[in-house]
Description:
The protein is an alpha+beta fold and 123 residues long. It has helices at residues 2-21, 87-91, and strands at residues 49-62, 65-70, 78-83, 97-106, 111-121. It has a domain at 49-121: CATH 2.40.50.140. It has a five-stranded mixed beta barrel.
Amino acid sequence: MKKKSILLIIIIFFISSYSISGMTKKQNTVTVSGDLAGSETRSTIDIEKKKTMEKKGKIEVSGDNVYYLINWTSKSRISLDVIGNLKKEVSKLEGKIIEAEGNIKYKSQWSGTIEITSYKIVK
Length: 123
């Protein structure tokens, strides 16, 4: 009786292990709205996030690249590449803090692109 119970437990263990190893992670693409700079958890493998926002940030320029930095004093800053018609105009504001309105496409939690549609200089 005891041998049958042990054998049954071993068989169930192998069957459940085989079923679990056959599972794969599913990739999802979702669109998220709202403030993504907060403490939001991300459990999917591939997330495409697009949003329109109005937020304060600092402009940095490196070569031909223009960056809009959100939360620039923190290690958790978000670096967005500036794209679009206002890129050249915004690049002249290097070191300035502006409040920009635009369309953001996040590549990860900490980076992405922003197409600035309007801005005002804060500092």
